[in-house]
Amino acid sequence: MAIKLLVFDFRESERDFFRSHELENFEITFFPESLNNETLKNLSSDLLEQTAVISVFVDSEVTEDVINSFKNLRIISTRSTGVEHINKKAADAKNIAVVNVEGYGARPVAQYTIGLILALVRQIIPASEYLKSENRICQSFVGRDISKFTIGIVGTGSIGFAVAKHALAFGMKVLAYDIAERKDLTEKYEIQYVDFNTLLRNADIVSIHIPYTGENKDMFGFEQFSIMKNTAYLINTSRGEIVNIKDLYNAVTKGAIKGAALDVVTCEYFNFKCSNLSHTLYNNFDCVEEAKILREFVKHPDVIITPHIAYETQDAIDYILEVTFIAISDIIKGGNSYRVN
After folding, report:
1. pTM value?
2. CA pair distance 28, 23, nearest whole angstrom
3. What pLDDT, on the 0 to 100 scale, is given for residue 280?
4. CATH code reported for the domain at 106-305
5. What pLDDT was estimated at residue 43?
6. Sequence ranges of the chain with CATH classification 3.40.50.720
7. CA geometry: angle at 32 spanning 272 and 341, to 5°?
């Protein structure tokens, strides 16, 4: 008997994988919408009764109510490394396995990070927009040579390390901050660990590559931007919650720092989704406020905001899906290699 699997947050870029792979052991239903307390109401009683596996992305909110609504759920699979959008405590209570995917982001996110740096420092986007405009006002697009820059990398896991290697290839000086310093990096590469404030004070570019833990919410705010150079740029391809967006907006628009590039924000479903939003989201004051700020912020010539696509190459997407089904099959067979709870 085929295993009932519901795939939420389904995207067009994932379609070819399912077309080209034989997954005859699964009866799969696709939903472009995220799974949350509101969209849960659209699922039939049969689906809630029969589903054994759900697959989601970080836009979903797998709450205790969502978990308890599925009567025979055995596996929650997230097509991401982070699992903060899943209530693991509720899953544990029902002996439901939570599995994730690691190792897909280092290369594409590092490449994208360097791309954002080049786009900011060399004013590539304003220059391109200038040529598209019919009402051109002469302006300068003089940039900087990034080999003269110092980059400060916050977090030296696989992604932060990959960014450091790219930065070194461009001739940049690399400072790093991490609560767990890696001796292997300092021995083999010209990477210097410093304390957090020293990094902020000396870096021309600060690039964030740490997971969101809840405790590091608003790790970057008014105080940190005050320490940074007024010529410095902030890059965030990590998690939106780590940066206080209002403080960042004020820092850039008032000249405390030069500019910023963000591929992540706190309310990504609210700000980045193409589809209509549930009316309940509009009652989320914090998300509404963030949306208002982003609407103005994106107009700034020294700001780039993109909709969480740093990792999104077709290669990475295919890898994520492949590992997703390996992990699900491993749990079904009694394994726990990919289990995170």
Report:
1. 0.86
2. 9
3. 44
4. 3.40.50.720
5. 97
6. 3-103+314-332, 106-305
7. 90
Predicted local confidence at residue 111, as pLDDT: 97
Q: Among the residues of the chain, which ranges form H helices? A: 15-20, 45-50, 64-69, 88-93, 106-121, 124-132, 158-169, 183-188, 196-202, 222-227, 245-253, 268-272, 285-297, 314-332
Report yes or no: 320 and 17 within 8 Å, Cβ to Cβ: no
* Amino acid identity, position 228: M
Both tokens assigned to 31: 């939903």
Q: Please, which residues have CB within 8 angstroms of residue 307's CB and are 6 or more apart in sequence?
A: 263, 268, 271, 272
* Neighbouring residues of 214: CB distance < 8 A, sequence distance ≥ 6: 84
pLDDT, position 281: 45
Catalytically annotated residues? 239, 268, 308
Burial class (CB in 10 A: 0-12, 13-18, 19+), 205: buried
Is CATH 3.40.50.720 correct for 3-103+314-332?
yes
Alpha carbon distance 8, 59 (integer Å): 9
